[in-house]
Design a protein that fits this description.
4 helices; 3 strands; FCP1 homology domain-containing protein; HAD-like_sf; about 90 residues; HAD_sf; Rossmann fold; alpha/beta
Length: about 90
């Protein structure tokens, strides 16, 4: 599935905490993408909220059962991810 992604980012690579709205802004600045053309995949609602605040599309990863789905786009199994990404990409175009 790695071929579906261009880059991966963590707080150590953009020098800010993930809970900060600056985290997603710095990532988007690095890739030169418009926020509405990006997809953030994350399990924690507080980080998803920051991604939404940046203008990104989000997919909530509810893989461990720690978090219940609270976003329109979510997965409970990684096999669901390609379909949701495809649907989002088709809506972004």
């Amino acid at each position: 599935m790695r071929n579906l992604f261009e880059n991966f980012y963590g707080p150590d690579l953009v020098n800010t905490h993930k809970i900060s709205n600056n985290f997603f802004k710095r990532v988007l600045d690095d890739v030169w993408f418009e926020p509405d053309r990006t997809i953030v995949i994350e399990d924690k609602p507080k980080f998803l909220e920051c991604a939404l605040n940046s203008g990104s599309n989000v997919i909530q990863a509810c893989l461990t059962g720690e978090f219940e789905p609270s976003y329109q786009n979510y997965i409970k199994d990684m096999n669901e991810l390609p379909k949701i990404i495809t649907n989002l990409v088709n809506n972004i175009k």
